[in-house]
Structures are given as structure tokens and as C-alpha cells.
Amino acid sequence: MPRRPADGPGPNQSAGYRGGGTIGEAMTLTHTAETESIAAPARFAWRGVVLISGLMALVLSVSAARFQFAGDELYYLACGRRLAVSYVDNGPVVPLIARLCDLIAPGSVIVLRIPGLLLLILVSVLAAAVAFECGARPRYQLLAAAAYGASPLVLGFTVLTSVAFDLALQGLICWLLVRWVRIRQDRLLVAVGVTAAVDVQDKWLVLMLAACIGLGVLAVGPREMLRRTALWVGLLIFAAAMIPALLWQASHRWPQLATNSAIARETAQNGGQWGTVAAILMISGFLGGGLGALGLYGLVRSPRLRPYRFLLIAAVLMVVLVVVGHGRAYYVAGIIPALFGAGASTLSGLLDTAGKRPLRWTFTTLTVLSAALTAFFALLPYPRSWIVEPHDGPLGSLQHYGNDGWADLADAVHTAAIGLPPAEQAGAVVVTAAYNQAGALDQYGRSQWIPPVYSPHRGFAEFGPPPDSAQTILYVGFNGGSEQQAFLAEFAHTTPALRLDNELGIGGQNHQLTIWICRDPLIPMSVAWPKLIYMVAPPTP
User: Fold this and answer.
1) According to the model, what pLDDT value does residue 291 have?
2) How far is CA 499 from each of CA 429, 508, 510, rounded to the nearest angstrom?
3) Residue numbers in the chain where pLDDT is lower than 50
4) Which string of b and e fits 407-417 if b means at least 16 CB within 10 Å?
5) N or C: lower Cβ tally within 10 Å for the chain?
6) Which pLDDT score, from 0 to 100, does residue 209 have?
């Protein structure tokens, strides 16, 4: 953990808090501010920070253990059984972790989610560590850790997803850079490159973070960072790590670009840019939102945060890019721990010097509300008897009630498969309309007989088409969807075999879903497959 350097006190140890700085002033940093290290407070409250972060993860682990598999987890398990150097919209890190977890404890939801909970501890500690680097006293370091642990962002760590790894690694990159600004140890810049090299094996969002931080440093400093050989060594490591994925993408017609376009269309259809702005404001939670706002304020006004002002530029640029590009709200979340840390430092300076009662009461209230939000997370999932109407999406139902519906889908496909004539069963296959359906059947098919599974949707499409020898295909489609109509049109004979319609279920899983028997393809599936592939998720009923 960070410790106070041997040099004497610096700007971050000053008792006073002085406002008045502007972004323009930051562009005229003195030589001293560019080259000298900055001293931190006397100690990092590592025991309390680790305790708070661990308790948050422990509370959430109780909830996480009560959920069945999420759709993305099932997809990553399927990817793990088909390991590659890259995939359509993610790298090999999470599929590899999923595979290892499944080998250690086959079918265990709990073991699969341990990595995400450990990453939650790491990110909470990083928020506190940034607060330490920025001069916050121990109590405010604890506040930064608690703010992250009590934010809606933690839901992304209760299941195994690429998001959890990406947020943790981006948070680590931000902390390494902040620490370099304070102590100027160049090995930290090499570590930034190594961390980014690992992160790009998970998601490519780190490219946006790197570009925005680079522009921030170029605009407001410390520009000395750009002259350090260690930085360029780190960037070379980062670039080299991207080569396998780039070669894979090039050989597969750049599906990552098609996925980005599909996500933009999905975002535009679900709230658009204003919805993205609202989601960005919500993901930090009550206490985190307050600290994040203070962090932005402090990066503009506080002299002791002036060396870290590149974080302000980076955060603003990331928000603009995500909103304009119709990205998802969590794309900006990698920098949030750093903003929480800066906010804790700002709050420390304001309260320790001015003792402003309204501000103190405001953050006391936000802390209480955040505690209530944590209790809400800990009580999930709620009893399924509380469900009174179909949910608007699988994620909402899973997070609130643990009602995933995948087992129902697997049972239905198994029933349809064993209902086929014996002569057809041997060569039959299953095709699903959505990649998460395929992942579910791939997983649950290990405990009951389900024919080999394929899907033309997103990442699963790259696992290949059904064999041309398959003359009977069970198709799992959404009722009335255009994707379903296009697929059925490829066969001479199609018959609805089974309808799955749990009134309180989830569209595409166990609500308004039909399993079709498709016989006699009009052309070989290897020929038809390319035109059947699509990236945008089919609309749920």
C-alpha cells in the first residue's frame, strides 16, 4: 500500500484549502509543479479500507449466491469451451476465467462469481488509494471506498462479466497515473502499459480511456509524463498486446465494429442520448454522486488537485464520446474511482478547514441513503411470489427476483428434442435467435440431452453454422420477430412444436417463445448462414 515518501511535506499536506483555480491556470503550470513529487498525508488507512471493501463484497456475495446464471455468464462459459485469442465483442480473459471456474467447480454459480467480488474489493481500495494520493485524510479515504461499495456499479461485480474486469483495470490505470504524478517513479508508467495490455484482452474500451487521458495530459499537464521513456515502453507493450486481437478481427471481417454499431442502435432505441446521460448520473449512487461532483469541482478549483487536472479533461471527453456515440453508460465508469478519490480529497479540505455545516449534513444524508441502497442490494433477490407482471427484460428480473427462466427454456428444448422421431434425433441441431439462449442451452445441455447448439446472433455466430448434413433443426425464436421469419424461410417445412409462455416470465427465455421444427433446408446452411447473421438483439415480446 502507498506510504509517505521520504521527502518533506508538500502541497497535499497543507492544512488549508484554497479555491480559485481555473482550467486555464492549469495550462500554465510552473516547472516545479511539472517536475517535483507531491507529498501525501501521513498514512493510508489500509486496514479500514480493506475491511470496508471486504464487508461490502461479503454482503453482496450472499445476494450473488442466490441468483442463477445470467445470460452473459452462460455466453462466457460457452466461449470458455471454445477458447480463442479473441471474440466478436470481447477478449479471452473472461472466457478463460469462466473455463477455469467451471473446471474447478462445474456448474457452480458461487465459484463463477468469486472473481467479480474480488475485483469489487480491488476497485473500492483503488478509490481510497486515489483519495490518499490526492491528500485526503484517513476518514475520507474510508468514505471513498464506502461510496464505491454502495453504488449501483457494484451490481456489475455480482456476476462474471467483462465489465467487472474492465472497470477494475481502468481504475488501476488511473491510480497508477495519479501515483506517478505524486512520486514520479517511472516504473509506474511501465505498469500502466502492462495493465492496459491485460485490459485490452478483456475489452477495447481502454483505448478510449487512454486517448482521453492522453489529451488531458497534453492540455493541462503534467506534460513531462509524455517525455518519459518509461511511458513509451509501456505503450509499446500495450500495442504489442493488441496484435493477436487485431489479426483475429481482420480475419473475421472486423466484427467489433459491427458490434459497436449494433450497440449504438440498441442504445438509440432504449432512451437515446438523454437516457444515457441519466444513466451516467445514476450509476454513482447517492454518496458516490456527491463525491464525484465534488471531485470535478475540486479538479477545477483546488490548488492541491491541480496536478491531477488531466482527470477532469479525460472524464469530460469520455462522457461526450459516449453520449454522442450512443454508447452505454458504464463506458465512462472506469474513471469513476479516481473521481471519488478526488472528491474525498476535496471534501477533506473543505470540512477540515471551513467546517461547513450544510456540506457536512449533506454528506451525512447521502451516506445514510447509500447505506439503505446497500441494504436493498443485500436483500436481493426478492421472493418470486412478488412478481405480478412480466418483466421488461432479463436483467431486471434476474437482479430483482433471480427469475432467469433459462432452466425452463432448456427443459422445453429437451422435450421438443426427445419428441423427434428416433431417425431424426441423431442428426438434429438447435439454432437460437439470441446468443444468450444458445449459451443457456450449451450449459444446461450438459445435464440433459439437447442437440448441438448454434446461433446467428452476435458472438455466437462466429462459432460456425450448423453442419450441412443437418436436415432437422429445432429453432428457438421470438414470436413474430423478423429474424425468426428470415430463418424459417430457409426451409421447405416448418412446424411449431412447443410454445413456452410463462405469464410472469421473461421474453426470449420463458415468455412468448416458440420452438419450431424446421426440416429440409432449401440451400446448405453453410451458404445461408452469412446472410442470417445479425448483431442487434432481437426485440423481446
Assistant:
1) 93
2) 18, 11, 9
3) 3-37, 392, 394-395
4) bbbbebbbebb
5) N
6) 98
